[in-house]
Amino acid sequence: MSVFINHFEQRRRAVLVTAAAAWGLLLSGAAFAQAAPAQIRIGFQKSAVNLVILKQQGALEKRFPNARVQWVEFPAGPQLLEALSVGSLEFGLTGDSPPVFAQAAGKELRYVGAEPSKPRSSAILVKQEAPIRTLADLKGRKIALQKGSSAHYLLLRAVEKAGLAWSDITPIYLPPSDARAAFERGSVDAWAIWDPYYAATELDIAPRVLATGEGLSGNNSFYLASTALAEKHPQALQVLFEELTRADAYVQSHRKEAAQLISDFSGLGLATVHRFIERRPPSPVAPLTPAITAEQQRVADAFAALGLIPRQVKVAEIVWQPPGATKVAQQATGGTTR
User: What are the Solute-binding protein family 3/N-terminal domain coordinates in residue numbering (predicted)?
Assistant: First the structure.
């Protein structure tokens, strides 16, 4: 099974790279001559490595010299998407669960891009001395998590794998900073969290990792945009994806310098930054493939089945299709779009 999963991940990453390159060819020339939007307000989190690098390097300000580029930091994806849906942002990055909750609530937004999955970048943590040794031991326990975040889906899958019902645990919904405080003082028994909060906690208090996303959740990262940006400025998205992919290549080839940029921005210690980017795979950015859309639909279906969202949603309905998307997908997947 692990060999199959590794092969699947390698193939999916290749699809993302191929799609990005092909789309770049499709949108070259006249498309780049079109006017950029007057402003691009970008929502990001400390875990958004590619966006943080762009911010620190000032790359987008150079590519969009006539646009007002603004950067707004959020503690987690749900808060970011709320801002996007009410018109306070044009673009942002979240994990897999926030867009599902936003779509189910009728929020106006579009999936426009994705990075490869990062299953090792999220985890369920317990104290070293805790009696919880297996996922089944979570029964009857209080578990801290950000509602509607990628950690929500990780915990859902962990409960399912343990053969438990969601009602067998007590979820305690807290933003990351409050969740860590509750975890450290023993107010909760476990904590489902993602990097860099995961890495910082590992180094500071050495908790025990009960499970990571491996075998449970792909922990996918999605770029979302306002409908106006997606429909009126597709060339701006191409520039964004080019620069994000370039930023990722910089992280891979200049690890020390990238870690310093991230540390300078976030206030995180260098050891923490190195810890979380070392388990982050290469993450080029490209439009969603049919396979990624289908995987995200499984996330949505899991929340709907448990009644954790108010209605079922069809992810594909809000997936933006770039120019030439069908042709690109077929080329990238060897002629199929399964």
Answer: 39-258
